[in-house]
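Hypothesis: this fold can be encoded by more than one sequence.
Test: take the structure tokens below, design a sequence, compare later.
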């Protein structure tokens, strides 16, 4: 039987990796794309320009806040699986646009679930949930499916609604609906306003002489960072089970923002020496003494999530899921991609040139 997947948020990091993954498995893939005055399909242009397009890969203009459009598209496409990845997904931005975040990240989930129910409720549904549900309380770490929720941002609160309305539709209408509580997952396709990509882009720009230093917020914030490609595989595995359930996907380890900075510079053979603390903390090139990193209080959030560390034991045992890319490989992958794009060389080539000087 031909499987047909519908992906909301297909132009994002996760959507692009998931589309590739499903196409390789023989799926017919449909993606929802919001209409913009300029193209926003850079992450999936290689699929649009491939042999898949209009044979196995189809795009539709839509917005998950538009319930009538969702009803029509689900009726026409008749997907066997739906992956709801669309959202206003930036935590910091959610404090600036809380009402829109509630609509796009929270209420839109209800509209999509209702469209599924009205159209028969037979397809399998994946809801992109988030570690921001937990609020980063150190005493609850490592956080698992049974950890109490305590969101600390409009984004987290909107995702909390999405989580529970998914559970409610599963229990009320016997729908196959799963929540994937994913901890931070990154890649070279990560948005440039997320801290990991901000770091690797800044380091590459500094090497290319296009930026003087890197300014960050809370250097002590700890995150459980994994590779997005590993996590989309976990999304698919959740929908292949006999019974629907909710799962945490995480690496089972945590690193500070400071450690990510050190690893990024380390890929170029640069050691960072830290001085000061808090807003006065600065990072210098151990060899040259050049200022590389400082702290800008403007990047602190109104309510800071200090500590996220996931426990993916359930997913590992039940789904057989495990990550393939560890923290150091992830940083290396991202750093190399940005350096090649901006400076036209690889990290290894840069280090070799540095050693010859």
């Amino acid at each position: 039987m031909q499987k047909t997947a519908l992906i909301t948020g297909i132009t994002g990091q996760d959507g692009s990796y998931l589309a590739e993954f499903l196409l390789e498995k023989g799926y017919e893939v449909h993606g929802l794309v919001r209409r913009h005055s300029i193209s926003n399909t850079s992450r999936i242009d290689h699929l649009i320009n491939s042999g898949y397009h209009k044979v196995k890969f189809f795009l539709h203009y839509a917005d998950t806040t538009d319930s009538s459009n969702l009803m029509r598209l689900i009726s026409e496409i008749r997907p066997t699986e739906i992956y709801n990845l669309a959202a206003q997904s930036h935590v910091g931005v959610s404090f600036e646009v809380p009402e829109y975040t509630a609509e796009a990240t929270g209420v839109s989930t209800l509209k999509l679930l209702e469209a599924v129910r009205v159209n028969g409720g037979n397809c399998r549904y994946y809801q992109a949930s988030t570690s921001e549900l937990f609020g980063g309380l150190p005493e609850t770490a490592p956080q698992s499916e049974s950890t109490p929720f305590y969101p600390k941002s409009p984004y987290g609160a909107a995702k909390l609604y999405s989580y529970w309305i998914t559970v409610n539709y599963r229990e009320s209408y016997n729908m196959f609906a799963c929540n994937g509580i994913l901890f931070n997952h990154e890649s070279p396709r990560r948005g440039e306003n997320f801290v990991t990509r901000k770091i690797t882009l800044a380091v590459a720009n500094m090497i290319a002489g296009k930026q003087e230093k890197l300014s960050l917020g809370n250097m002590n914030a700890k995150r459980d960072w994994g590779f997005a490609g590993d996590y989309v595989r976990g999304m698919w595995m959740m929908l292949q089970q006999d019974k629907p359930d909710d799962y945490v996907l995480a690496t089972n380890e945590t690193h500070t923002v400071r450690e990510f900075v050190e690893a990024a510079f380390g890929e170029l053979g640069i050691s960072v020496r830290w001085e000061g603390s808090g807003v006065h903390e600065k990072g210098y090139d151990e060899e040259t003494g050049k200022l590389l990193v400082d702290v800008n209080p403007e990047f602190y959030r109104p309510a800071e999530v200090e500590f996220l560390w996931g426990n993916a034991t359930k997913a590992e045992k039940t789904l057989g899921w495990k990550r393939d890319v560890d923290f150091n490989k992830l940083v290396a992958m991202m750093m190399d991609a940005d350096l090649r794009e901006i400076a036209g060389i690889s990290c290894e080539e840069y280090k070799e040139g540095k050693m010859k000087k």
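Residues 336 and 347 are 5 Å apart (CA to CA). The longest helix spans residues 98-118.
Hypothesis status: open.
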